[in-house]
Amino acid sequence: MKRNLIVLLSLVFVSMTVCADDAERHGSKMMNAKAVSSDRVATGGVRVLFLGNSITLHAALPAIGWTNVWGMAASAAEKDYVHIVTRGIETKTGRKADVRVRNLAAFERNYRSWDIAKELADMADFDPAYLVIALGENVADLKTVEDRLAYREAFKSLLGFFMGDGKKSRPNVVVRGVFWPNATKDFEMAQVAGEYAVPFVRADFGTDAKMTARGLFWHGGVQAHPGDRGMQEIADRILEAFFPMESVNKVRVNETKIPRIVH
Predict the structure, then answer these.
(1) Which of 10, 53, 223, 230 is the most buried (most CB within 10 A)?
(2) Is the pLDDT of residue 252 over 50?
(3) What confidence score (pLDDT) does residue 247 get?
(4) pTM of the complete model
């Protein structure tokens, strides 16, 4: 009886700790451990900044079978959403892109205390003309009202750092929702996007195996990331938000218009 009780308590503890966030639920607990950023300098080019996590940029991690340095788990650098969006911006603007990409998993995991002004001072000086924020997967579950408000305020501070008064210019911004469905996180980020009148695009199709890299990698966490099709869909939605077309449907999330691709 005593032994059974110990086992039961252990299972409860594991369920409470192991499933702390969406990344852990999808086998990605040990990812984003190494801070990583990437620059592609084009003097005089249109300035583009991507802030995200492993889906945006992940360093090589041979221990899990990931040996690349681009958005996990695209089959090639040019097939991750960052490169696709960059090419789209270059096509639309007719200019080469001066690109900065940064993994902000540290912000996701420590959003209550992460020093935005200190950690992103160089990105503010970069003064992006286009900004994509694609975060949320590594944020611990927002179980309480306090958690939700804390994340909302942190996300607002992050977006406001680039949109606030005194900035050289106001960038064109798209906020991307989470890949692994989480309505609470999407709601909070959409709220902030709405406050700044910038598009929020949903990307919550991570439970669709066709959009992931299932079967292409041995590690479950890598497999759960967007494959080439998922990366293309994320990029399409972001580009539609930057460069809207009349044929795009509009849906609403908490009174925030969200561009969606017509399938």
Answers:
(1) 53
(2) no
(3) 39
(4) 0.84
**Of residues 23, 210, 234, the one with CA closest to residue 108:** 23
Least Cα distance to 184 among 17, 7, 22, 40 occurs for 22
Q: Which two tokens stand for residue 76?
A: 């090639």
Instruction: Give the three-class secondary structure for 168.
Output: coil
CB 46 within 8 A of CB 90: yes
Angle at 23 between CA 180 and CA 151, to 5 degrees: 85
Handedness of CA 183, 185, 191, 195 (dihedral sign): negative
- The span from the first CA to the last CA of the chain, in angstroms, equals 56
Answer positive or negative: Cα dihedral of 215, 219, 224, 225: negative
* CB contact at 8 A, 103 and 36: yes
What the chain holds in terms of domains, given with CATH numbers, is 35-260 (3.40.50.1110)
Cα→Cα distances 241→189, 202, 257, Å: 16, 11, 10
Helix ranges restricted to H, the chain: 2-18, 22-25, 81-93, 105-109, 116-119, 121-126, 145-163, 183-195, 220-223, 228-242
